[in-house]
Write a structure and sequence with these properties.
Number of domains: 2
Number of strands: 11
Order of helices and strands: EHEHHEHEHHEHEHHEHEHHEHEHEHHH
Shape: globular
InterPro entries: YkvP/CgeB_Glyco_trans-like
Keywords: Membrane, Transmembrane, Transmembrane helix
CATH class of the largest domain: Alpha Beta
Number of helices: 17
Protein name: Glycosyltransferase
CATH architecture of the largest domain: 3-Layer(aba) Sandwich
Low-confidence stretches: 113-120
Structural class: alpha/beta
Distance between the termini: 28 Å
Radius of gyration: 21 Å
Length: 349
Amino acid sequence: MRKVIVHGTYIYPIYEDALVVALRKVGYLVISDKVSLGNSIFTKFQLRFNFLPSPLVIYLSINLFFRIIKGNPNVVFLWKAFWIHPIVLRILKFVRPGCQIIIYNNDNPYSSLQNPGIFDDKYLVRYFRQQIKYADNVLVYRWQNVEEAKAYGAVSVLLFPSYYLPWIDLRTAPTLGEYTGRPFEVCFVGHYECDGRIIYLKEINSLFKLILGGGNTWTANVLDEINYYDHVCEHFGDQYIDLLSKSKICLCFLSKHNKDEYTRRCFEIPASGNLLLVERTKYLESIFVDFESALFFSSVEEAIQKIYWALSNQSCAHEILLNGQAVVIKGNFSVFDRVRQVINPPKVF
């Protein structure tokens, strides 16, 4: 049995933990290698100001190296491991030539839209970018990242998009009666980002029964701007799906910071038996059909129109919900499907 070490922070169950479950299902012996970075100012300083290797980076890099030597895996999977010095990967290529090194960052470490200045995220991802030329496979989240990874010296680039988790997200679709009885009209679960979504939410909150989820990114000042006065909690797993299922329409914004053309909620929302209202992109239009398996918008006005239409035509909205779930299930968008696509890739770039 092939052995793989999955190295990461394991903070969110939708990332490293989900990968471990999927790898085990397809036949790998998986060693979970969890690193705890802490949240102190000193730690953040060491990770961001990395012109020279900090004591923390040296410690974490040496620890990982010896764990790999001791474990002797066939594959090492580094999930967003920007704290690992690239020299570790370079040495591993010599001392463990048969070990496959895979690196992945589900954010956008190549983006030119990162925050400018000395606190630019490019400093935080400096080591990740330097790891690229030593990796056997670089997994990327977005199509545009393929050429960007190659520009940093990637030998092999594979697309590894987001996914839904069948054991959490996949739910029995509601009956029409259950759907029409939901207490809220619109739901948005996600982080706050200064990309215009606040304009949408302010208008939607003034016209419809809105419920928000997403945790501490929704500060009091931001919530005041949209006149939303309920407490906003962070939701994961079953709580997240339960919150979505309280609303007739589930709103989905795409991060401009990361140049996203889709997000995992585009798969989680339909998989869980909920109606997806999402920003229009070419990629999403290749998966879903407007008014058939999802609802798309490109402006505040269109989003409002689609909400009014769905609430006035709830039988049709329920049918779209059912079709959306069928599209996601049949379309190989689960974490198991994604892992199989990487292990036996149809196309290496």
